[in-house]
Amino acid sequence: MSILVDDRTRVVVQGITGNEGRFHSNQMREYGTRIVAGVTPGKGGRTVDGVPVFDTVSEAVAMSGANASILFVPPAFAADAILEAAEAGLDLVVCLTEGIPVQDMIAVRRYVDEKGTSLLGPNTPGVISPGQCKLGVMAGYIHMPGPVGILSRSGTLTYEVVHQLSALGIGQTTCVGIGGDPIVGLSFPDLISLFEEDPATEGIVLIGEIGGGAEEEAARVIVERVSKPVVAFVAGQSAPPGRRMGHAGAIITGGAGTADAKIAALREAGVHVAVDPASIGELMRAALA
Amino acid sequence: MQIHEFQAKRLFAAYDIPVLPSRPATTPEAAAEAAAELGFPAVVKAQIHAGGRGQAGGIVRAESPDEARRAAARLLGAPLVTRQTGPGGRIVRTLLVEPAANIAYEIYLGVVLDRARRQLVVIGSSAGGVEIEETARKDPEAIRKEWVDPMIGLRPFQAFRLARRLGLDGTTAGRVAAIVRSLVRLYQEKDCTLAEINPLAMTDAGEPIALDAKLTFDDNALCRRPEIQKLRDLHEEDPLEVEASAAHLNYIKLSGNVGCLVNGAGLAMATMDLIQLVGARPANFLDVGGAATAETIEKGVRILVEDKGVEAVFINIFGGILRCDVLAEGVIAAARSIDIQVPVIIRLEGTNVEAGRALLASSGLAFRTASDLHEAAGMIAAAARGTDEHLGR
Lengths: 289, 393
Hints:
- The complex is a heterodimer.
- By secondary structure, chain A is α/β, with parallel strands linked by helices.
- Chain A has nine helices and 14 strands.
- In chain A, a hairpin with a 2-residue loop joins strand 3 and strand 4.
- In chain A, helix 3 runs parallel beside helix 4.
- The radius of gyration of chain A is 18 Å and the shape is globular.
- Chain B has three domains: 155 residues, D-amino Acid Aminotransferase, Chain A, domain 1 (2-Layer Sandwich); 80 residues, 2-Layer Sandwich (Dna Ligase, domain 1); 154 residues, 3-Layer(aba) Sandwich (Rossmann fold).
- Helices cover 38% and strands 25% of the residues of chain B.
- Chain B contains 13 helices and 18 strands.
- In chain B, strands 7, 8, 9, 10, 11 and 12 form a six-stranded antiparallel beta sheet that branches. A four-stranded antiparallel beta sheet of chain B has the order 1-6-2-3, covered by helices on one side. A four-stranded parallel beta sheet of chain B has the order 14-16-17-18, sandwiched between helices.
- In chain B, helix 11 runs parallel beside helix 12.
- Chains A and B meet through helix 4 and helix 5 of A and helix 4, helix 9 and helix 13 of B.
């Protein structure tokens, strides 16, 4: 079992004819992901490495039966591409693009909510259910199937945690990046609830960072309805206030969004919080024992 | 991106937000002339990208051209240290000269993104001239909010309601409501991340005037706002940060003793945390990103060792899109072309890790390689301690 994606997920790749889109489509197929169509406006009728390309997402969905999409689209066109995917009725849209203006995402988020589409990102490495489906750009080989669900605002820090877990022989049900932007689609509370309901997931790792209130929201949901052990790490304990730490959403403003406040809220909710990023895997092992 | 008060006030004027007539000045003579033209008493205001200028002596009242000239001569070219600048302060290069206003009372107005609700929020407070965070702590009752619906925008009745709830009466409330709507329009049309009038002063005649102006902008939207991009003042940014951004490196200078180079923002923050945890202090944040080449890595290493405070360098890479062999090539090229005087600790994992480690090992250079974060932490602690002893601390 897993959440969001599995071996039945049928994927359309938006922006499949670009370098990144083509390269990662092949990487995903090698991992076993079912890529059934591609979309690039104006390039319909071609094929890319055997995958049929359509002009519009709705056409691609009608012809291929896709139920999820992944976007390799530059920032200036990404908001439109998300809207097109939601309008076409896809269940899940993964947006990797970094650099979408925040105001565009305010409207996009409202629209995908109305359509009932689950949006992952923007500015996410994607989602992987090890051994079943990879919808993203993470290195597949560091993952292994197993009992831990991971949700994160980061990319490479997630790989680090996956690596620590796999090295201890602890596999993963699904690893999800929610994205590093101030406004993203699926949130920590949404995903924690999905992991709680997933029978194969026995423990949850939450990787947060400074800025916003996603970790505090997660803490509230954990108190209300999570019975499984949760381990967390909050990046940015050493970050200065008022500076954007790489991710557009990682900024302490007016004393709000500090790592200390988030760690306190998570501890209050009974979460095992790692202070040392090198010991997250070991903490999960102890929590599962 | 931040801009200066005088630039923000020009944008205010273009959006019908009332401001005083004013002149920027870059010499004492120009400041004296501007003050004489605008009338006395005048106010001479230092233009830097930081708040707290008033308490720091950066805003000076002048009763004569001579006083304006003297104030300008004292401020220009000197660092101004406020509670937001850090101990080094910021060099004042431009002044804004305005006539002093007759103020009956002041309020606060601001527009910002409410991340939890995923919409813009207009914040008003009857405590003008006070930072909104301070009001939120000490007098939360003074704060009023109206949210901007993404589909229908801020409605006129909301703007008027906000003004009434701030205790303003009929005519003044109408004028302030118009300013609220203008501020939201400015925020949306120019892709701001903060639009703030603090204080918005009411004159004896009940006329509102924006006495200060603060606008910050969404870096992701600058490409579609060339008129805003032009307002960037590189003097206000750290020279190493300017150099890094030209090389597409995401670098923030801090004041610690261990420099770090990392791929990915989350891992970069976690790496800083690890450095702090072992008793050293991170000298910077540096995310080289996934698209880094050997050249950008080399550039990144150079920027790290140019920082005089750096006593050790820690390179922490989890290869994904960025391959470990590419990273190794860049680090080796940097070490061959510059004389690195501090220990370099490298931890590699992920894509092409074996090739990367082999390159480092066969380079003949004195890198210290760690196989995981635990080992790296120990090496950082030892290196930081070692240099500390060496410096006799």
